[in-house]
Amino acid sequence: MRSSKLFSIILVLLVSCVSKAEMETVTAATELPPIDLIWREGLHINAGLGVHGGVYLVEGSTREYALGLAVKTDVSYYLNDRWALETGSLIKFARVNELRIWGTEFGVGFRYRLPQGWYDEQVPYFRFFTGASVNVVYTDGQKLPEFEEAYSRIQFEGPMMGIAFGGMRLTENKNVWFWEVAATGEWMTRESGIQMEKDVPVVVARSALDGSSQLYTLYITMGGFIF
Asked: What is the pTM of this model?
């Protein structure tokens, strides 16, 4: 009699635990954010701030490392609940060996929404983009060993390509915020020497590069949708 009563108590406890677990699973599933409130069709603009770290290679040999601030903006047109076309920019600021560096990457590409539920209350996505990059080194008249003359600034240009992974989240105020990790590669194909003439930058020298100089950068940014 006692054993059957004890068995009944244990059975009731097990049923209660299973029911509670099922309720928690259903609740967690229903708490996933509505996709149409985050991934909305139409034109949208987002902007974010973060940090970046990069390595500069010449013919496969490491020359310099750089760390600094980063700013990103994207103009996207969401076609449907999976795909979006976009254009955007990544701007980076750094200081290497007392030289100030300002780099800008312009790209076009696509954004693809990954299956929902990878992260609580977030919609994950993947991005691919390609375009061009411009890196300006402010020498302030200092002569660098790689150049025959001293310039006010030196500009490097070339193609670039990148990928990114991130997540989008809906706040209580119905605003969309995001985080993103991006990696880009740049291939330098042209350099220009610039002098300042009456506060106006003038290109005084220009030469082609063979692309053996590359810059690889990792970005970590956070921000929100402007609209």
From this structure: 0.81
Number of Cβ atoms within 10 Å of the Cβ of 90: 28
Note whether 134 and 104 are within 8 A (CB).
Answer: yes
CB pairs under 8 A, 24+ apart, for 34-39?
Answer: 34/170, 35/81, 35/113, 35/116, 35/123, 36/81, 37/170, 37/174, 38/123, 38/168, 38/169, 38/170, 38/176, 39/78, 39/81, 39/113, 39/123, 39/168
Tens digits of residue pLDDT in 65-75? 899 999 999 99
Pairing of strands 99-113, 83-96: antiparallel
Q: What is the DSSP letter of 142?
A: P
Q: What angle do CA 128, 57, 152 make, to 5 degrees?
A: 100
Q: Are 218 and 54 in contact (CB under 8 A)?
A: yes
Q: How far apart are CA 206 and CA 31, in angstroms?
A: 58
Q: pLDDT tens for residues 28-76?
A: 444 556 788 899 999 999 999 999 999 988 876 667 889 999 999 999 9
Burial of 184 (0-12, 13-18, 19+ CB in 10 A): buried
Residues 130 and 159: beta-carbon distance below 8 Å: yes
Averaged pLDDT of the chain: 83
Q: Minimum mean pLDDT among 125-139, 190-204, 212-226: which range?
A: 190-204
Token reading at 55: 């390595």
